[in-house]
Specification:
The chain is α/β, with parallel strands linked by helices. It contains 19 helices and 16 strands.
Length: 605
């Protein structure tokens, strides 16, 4: 049966000549292939550059094809032929159409918002599980709800008479929703529908929850902006109020006793400027024109000797946190110009930890890792062992409330995970600096610099010593933290694979300054049975000198995974396969044009 709309069919026949097909195809392929081909030619001439072709073919030691292709795709996103057009297009969308990016939203009156923070106010949230679907990736590990992980952590601490104090920091769209755009609520606070039930469940599990929402709204009603306009984090004045609220709650506890000799501290004002992390997520070619830096006054906390208040590992209070704790202390997060000529170990000393110590009159043990407030800080505390808890009374856990309210899928997209941790029962301390040649045994994956808010990140690696030039090591393996990227530029260790021979200069991780230990870290391979080191210097030693595989020589590398000769052969293979594919495409177009060409007219009569 014919459908009743035959008269609506297009009766016009459209044809295109073979010459036009060829030219369109050649121009399109040239436009697509020219940038990566040019990049590969440059990489062949200069082995210091990362070659997309070489990276695609080099799968030695890759854990899986999927992970390998994802990492290659992320590296291609960082190349100049990919990032420059993307930044140009984003600049046009932002400057002309006022459009944000996939992670940052542009509100009204110069306010920027973090998309996962907005998503944390809606959706399924932390209690109701996501419905099952056959489209779920079977390789994704099972999701642990935040309630379960936090309650279990509180129980582990309670076994050693340590209290868990949870301080969820309200995020910008909760307190200031009115600048989101048309249809936004005229006044906060805006909370997830399950927030009250979620915190009630935690309190029933023994968690002490300090809710700062009402206090933040008081600040808003008094005329304060509460948050930096171009950043995900709070204003310095808001942070100091939060530190005072937490200190007041702790001082009311029976176990809290004022120290015999309170630490005498003074406050010093510092003024600096900062282009917020949200502005950095909107990558354009003219960032400062679209989002000029905003200024703020910080209060630096100083000891009597004029130095910044430092942490005290022997304190009976442990502070766990994410970038909300590190903000105004780590200059990599902003306001570095406030230091001027007084670097003082590269720290600002005006963060949450310093102000909490100022109000308490005592030092704190601080474990704060950017982007790892959910699981990374708990793993670091657990690595220090159960004996370490014997001297503690409280663990104060400060983290963004958005991490608590995200459901499984958006949480994975924001790199938030609620893993279970087990405290180490035995300590394996680093034995001192080491220098020599090691073989890579296993490593964690690379964090995508385009998918996170921070400009630096590390990853964990297991090495086996081959020959030490300096230091003594009695074990068979050790854990090393190496740089994945710095200033969003991928570093050489990001391409090391299992089996690689690497010359390393190592120092104990616990001896590193706060500016390093607070950086975002992929520690999925953290093993409590190994001492932990930090790679001060790293270079490959097993790269062949020629494509023929001559004797390996020691050579500094920037992560190139193949020799010049092998790159030329891979480049030639790629061009050959590309040429064959183009020839087949043109042949198909030719055959199609022949089949669709009009035949001779039918004879008349």
């Amino acid at each position: 049966m014919n459908h009743p709309y035959d008269n609506l069919e297009d009766q016009q026949t459209y044809r295109i000549s073979r010459r036009a097909c060829v030219w369109i195809t050649v121009l399109f392929m040239g436009f697509v292939l020219a940038p990566p081909i040019w990049r590969n030619v440059g990489a062949v001439r200069d082995p210091a550059q990362w070659a997309p072709v070489s990276g695609l073919y080099d799968m030695d030691g890759a854990p899986s094809l999927r992970r390998h292709l994802r990492e290659v795709e992320n590296r291609i996103d960082d190349t100049d032929f990919s990032s420059v057009p993307r930044r140009w297009l984003q600049g046009w969308l932002t400057g002309v159409l006022n459009e944000g990016s996939r992670r940052a939203l542009i509100g009204r009156d110069g306010w920027l918002y973090y998309r996962p923070a907005v998503e944390s106010l809606t959706g399924l949230g932390p209690i109701d599980p996501e419905p099952f679907t056959v489209m779920t990736d079977p390789d994704i590990p099972p999701w642990t709800p935040a309630t379960e992980a936090i309650s279990r952590f509180a129980g582990q601490l309670a076994e050693h008479d340590v209290e868990l104090w949870l301080v969820p920091v309200p995020v910008k769209p909760m307190i200031i929703p009115e600048h989101l755009g048309p249809g936004a609520p005229e006044r906060g606070p805006i909370r997830h529908a399950d927030a009250g039930r979620f915190y009630d469940q935690l309190r029933e599990a023994g968690v002490r929850v300090i809710d700062l929402t009402d206090r933040f709204m008081q600040l808003r009603d008094d005329g304060s902006d509460v948050f930096l306009r171009q950043d995900t984090h709070w204003l310095p004045s808001t942070m100091t109020v939060a530190a005072a609220e937490v200190a007041a709650a702790l001082q009311q506890q029976p176990w809290f006793s004022p120290p015999e000799h309170p630490a005498e501290t003074t406050l010093r004002d510092l003024t600096g400027s900062h282009r917020g992390d949200l502005a950095g997520m909107i990558e354009t070619l003219r960032d400062d024109d679209l989002f000029p830096p905003e200024r703020a006054t910080l209060q630096q906390v100083l000891q009597q000797d004029g130095h910044i208040v430092d942490e005290d590992p022997q304190s009976d209070i442990v502070l766990l946190g994410d970038s909300f704790v590190n903000m105004f202390d780590d200059p990599a997060l902003g306001f570095a110009d406030a230091l001027g000529d007084d670097a003082d170990s590269g720290r600002l000393g005006a963060g949450f930890a310093q102000h909490l110590a100022h109000h308490l009159g005592r030092g704190l043990e601080v474990i704060a890792i950017n982007g790892q407030g959910a699981s990374g800080v708990r793993r670091e505390l657990a690595r220090r062992g159960v004996d370490h808890l014997g001297r503690k009374h409280a663990v104060v856990w400060v983290l963004a409330e958005r991490d608590l309210m995200l459901a499984a899928t958006p949480a994975r997209g924001a790199r938030v995970a609620w893993d279970h941790v087990e405290f180490a029962t035995e300590q394996f301390a680093a034995e001192g600096p080491l220098r020599g040649e090691f073989q890579l045994v296993e490593r964690s994956g690379n964090i995508d610099p385009n998918a996170v808010a921070y400009t630096e990140a590390l990853h964990s690696v297991v090495y086996r010593p081959i020959q030490l030039e300096e230091g003594n090591f009695t074990g068979s393996e050790l854990m090393v933290y190496e740089w994945t990227f710095r200033s969003r530029v991928m570093q050489p260790p990001s391409e090391y694979r299992p089996g690689a021979r690497v010359w390393l200069e190592l120092e104990p991780w616990d001896d590193q300054p706060t500016a390093i230990r607070s950086q975002q870290l992929n520690d999925e391979l953290l093993r409590f049975d190994l001492p932990v080191y930090y790679a001060v210097e790293s270079r490959r030693t097993d790269l062949a000198a020629t494509a023929a595989g001559t004797t390996a020589t020691t050579a500094t590398t920037t992560g190139a995974a193949a020799t010049t000769g092998s790159r030329w052969s891979q480049f030639a293979w790629t061009l050959g396969l590309g040429g064959l594919w183009l020839a087949l495409l043109l042949f198909g177009l030719h055959r199609t044009a022949q089949r669709t060409a009009p035949g001779p007219p039918a004879p008349q009569g």
